[in-house]
Write a structure and sequence with these properties.
The structure is a homodimer of 238-residue chains. Helices cover 39% and strands 24% of the residues of chain A. Chain A is an alpha+beta fold and 238 residues long. Chain A has 2 domains: 7-146, Jelly Rolls (Sandwich); 151-228, Sandwich (Jelly Rolls), CATH 2.60.120. In chain A, the strands form 3 sheets. Chain A has a 4-stranded antiparallel beta sheet with strand order 1-8-3-6. In chain A, helix 4 (151-166) crosses helix 7 and helix 5 crosses helix 6. Chain A is globular, with a radius of gyration of 19 Å. The N and C termini of chain A lie far apart (68 Å). Chain A binds chain B through residues 64, 66-68, 70, 72, 74, 86-87, 89-90, 95-96, 115, 118-119, 122, 125-126, 128-130, 132-137, 139-149, 187, 189-190, 229-230, and chain B through 64, 66-68, 70, 72, 74, 86-87, 89-90, 95-96, 115, 118-119, 122, 125-126, 128-130, 132-137, 139-149, 187, 189-190, 229-230. Chain A binds a DNA duplex (30 and 30 nucleotides) through residues 150-151, 181-183, 191-195, 197-198, 200-201, 212-214. Chains A, B: Keywords: DNA-binding, Transcription, Transcription regulation. Chains A, B: Residues 149-222 form the HTH crp-type domain. Chains A, B: This is Crp/Fnr family transcriptional regulator. Chains A, B: One of its GO terms (molecular function) is DNA binding.
DNA sequence: CGTAGTCTTGAATGACCTCAAACGCTGTGG
DNA sequence: CCACAGCGTTTGAGGTCATTCAAGACTACG
């Protein structure tokens, strides 16, 4: 029996924003903490959604697999974010895999507890709606990108999104703060790892990024933005 | 001042499912009915989201426009469906255009009324969560399709989705029950109207569809499914 | 030190886009 | 009633971006 989690963990989570101390205690009381070593699955596509989840520490990759085995990375989850919660309110099956790409600590709430919480504290439902709304919007943007933009721009957009979500300042620029392979980027942008590799190589030779094995550092974010927005590269005067 | 709408209009709307008569009356009392002739905009991308909407009759196209003017059709809304409601809970700006593709009757609720309703009747919030969850899932599927499948399969999937949502049985097969141009299909699938036209022509010569000006009839839905699922076409014995 | 996973790079093919032109409905106004 | 304009559609030809196929190099780890 793990020790009861600290209510302070929920502070700062968008899902529980604006709640009083009593409500937070209520929520934390129903939560179950769990550890997931890097590389393990937290839940699997098609499995019944027994619980909603929130990440305390680590990084989780949400991956959908198509009928023919094609994989698409739906998003990466960072500390403080909820995931796998929506399935409770739809058909009750997880629509994707959740894989720990770093050692993870998570809280989970059994489905019944989650719906109860939302009934007792409507603010939680509203927060959930807002979070999901944001994700829906992001997904719409990605759909538009994949549907209308060239590969290079899509990769630029994907990296910028990751920088915003998981960027960490280092001497050389901004580093994406978890292991990220070319394959991952390819599955985020609807292309192949070959094309991603070529693109990153080209950028590397232009000094825009530095990248190695499962690791990417952006040296010139503005240049990446220029590519993403399809601006002329390095517009000198005139 | 239009006459107060009939509470019966809300019956059968997923957003108000499971509510008592009093709650329905409450909701209907705050709603404002409106008419939108075919071709007019109901709201516009970037405009403040003053209200949430529900369609009574007609058909609405939700279109997102990118920075360079590229358009993507996010979805079609049919009678009974809500739309443009999520913006209230996120940044307060509509993320896309809503255009009446047929003469429309809609109800709308001012933003404040919508949040009030959800607080008074948590069931509405839960319903909204479920609806949005379904849309998020659909969007994930489309993203996967656009990212991994060839154009022909994507078009097949798009048509099948439209059939499910707006199919009407006719002598020749199943008709998509509103004006739908090649351009629309192209913007749903991330391709060009030229490719859509070629594809439909090919299918027409195989007797799978019949299509004309802004109109599509599917004669052999199973053949379309076979294309969508990438099965061998018409697998005879063996 | 071998093995497996990640990454790089080259060459060839092809799916789809772009460019271009023409056709046929539909509705309008003379 | 007919002529015409506008829009949606069809179809061809050429070009290209990105995939596919293929081979090899690098790195981490047991």
């Amino acid at each position: 029996m793990p020790p009861p989690p600290d209510p302070a963990l929920l502070r700062g989570m968008p899902l529980f924003a604006g709640l009083g101390a009593d409500a937070l205690a209520d929520a934390v009381g129903l939560a179950r903490p769990r550890l997931h070593p890097r590389g393990t699955a937290i839940f699997t596509q098609g499995e019944p959604a027994a619980a909603g989840h929130a990440l305390i520490d680590g990084r989780v990759k949400i991956v959908q697999t198509g009928p023919d085995g094609q994989q698409v990375v739906m998003r990466f989850i960072g500390p403080g974010e909820m995931f796998g919660t929506l399935a409770i309110f739809t058909d009750g099956l997880y629509p994707a895999d959740a894989v720990a790409v770093a050692d993870c600590v998570e809280l989970s709430w059994p489905a019944a507890a989650m719906t109860e919480l939302m009934d007792r504290h409507p603010m939680i439902a509203r927060n959930a709606l807002s979070i999901i709304g944001g994700r829906l919007r992001e997904l719409q943007n990605r759909l538009r990108e994949v549907a209308t933009e060239r590969v290079e721009r899509r990769i630029a957009h994907a990296l910028l999104r990751l920088v915003r979500q998981a960027g960490r300042r280092v001497e050389a620029g901004v580093e994406i703060d978890f292991p990220l392979s070319r394959q991952d980027v390819a599955e985020m942008t609807g292309t192949t790892l070959h094309t991603v590799s070529r693109t990153l190589s080209a950028w590397e030779s232009q000094g825009i990024v530095e990248s190695g094995r499962q690791q990417v550092v952006i040296r010139k974010p503005h240049a990446l933005v220029a590519i993403a927005e399809d601006l002329p590269p390095v517009p000198k005067r005139e």
